[in-house]
Structure prediction request, 254 residues.
Amino acid sequence: MTWSDDLNACAAIVERGDPLRFRTAMLAPVAQRAALFALYAFNVEVSRAPWVTQEAMIAEMRLQWWRDVLGEIAGGGTVRRHEVATPLAAVLSAEQAKLLDELVAARRWDIYRDPFEDIDDLHRYIDQTSGHLMWVAASLLGQAAQAPVRRAGFAAGIGAWLRAVPALEAAGRVPLLDGTPGGVSALAQTGLAALREARAARAQIPRCCAPALLTATAAEPALSRASSQPQLVTEGQLPEPGLPFTLCAATGRW
Prediction:
């Protein structure tokens, strides 16, 4: 993929809005790095769309704009000109675009104040946001088994969700179905179990795909702490995601 001003803009969006994924993308092979920047810039734009306005209709319109872009990509026709949409269209398959459309649709939850219907509804949200994103990222880097990648994405998503609980509650959202210490600990343990399942199938994921999965490794400290000290979640005291980047680069381990 030829580097362009659009890709420079994508890289800058990711560096500002998602510094962890920016650093993991820099560990990817140079030939695929641009594709990750386009994907992750899209994710930054979609993730913040529900939060830049208090008007639900405007937020819906912002998300619908991205769904329209993904529909154009999936349809194989002309895609509207945009600094993120244009490079994104150059790297996505129709199937990947359809998955990302589900990601955008799931983000509608962020607009409103309704709680999740049940634990399956929460898990579906995590899978369609974090899981879809990680699977598309991994598939842009190489050929990997989908199930363990998605489990790693689920673990990363749970870790990010638990860190976001105080901010979500302050914004009037209801992120936890069971906010008791036992309920919070159980959710964290679900994330840790997903990470163990993914790692048990590590042989099915080639080393070239590893940069896409590193956010799961980065989520492990928060998951472990939330499991053993669930009160830290509502106190906003979970550790920030971090990685031994030099070690990851040398070993490709996640």
Remarks:
- Residues 113-239 form one domain.
- The two ends are 26 Å apart (CA to CA).
- The chain has a mean pLDDT of 95.
